[in-house]
Write a structure and sequence with these properties.
Layout (H helix, E strand, L loop, with lengths): L43 E7 L11 H9 L7 H5 L12 E8 L2 H7 L10
Antiparallel strand pairs: 1-2
The structure holds zinc ion (ZN).
Length: 121
Amino acid sequence: MKRKDWIVTEYAARPAGKPNRCFYCHSLIGESHASECVIRNRTVVMDFTIRMVMDVPESWKDEDVEFRYNKGSWCADNLIEMIVREEDGCLCPHVQAKFVREATPDDEEKWGLVRVDDLQS
Ligand SMILES: [Zn+2]
């Protein structure tokens, strides 16, 4: 989801740049950031798939395993502890990121962590 106006504020100035301009696109405070400026962001919907190995009861069928993790009482927050691999390196070899679509206001509301209109400029 894009927003219409990206007005340069003091947020975009950096100590190594001029105090009255965006460090990245050099637009003046009060003007719009250039269309290619990295300060301009949009919200998108992403899927992150984690391929992992875990143990399940030997007697469970494939659909039992999926039921347990998709519709059972198991909480997906448990994944946070399950993916910590302190001695086995980072997750990069096991994660696939996929762009799904541009975010909508409903997507931003459901996820609740980022709204394009609240980003600093
Ligand atoms: Zn800028």
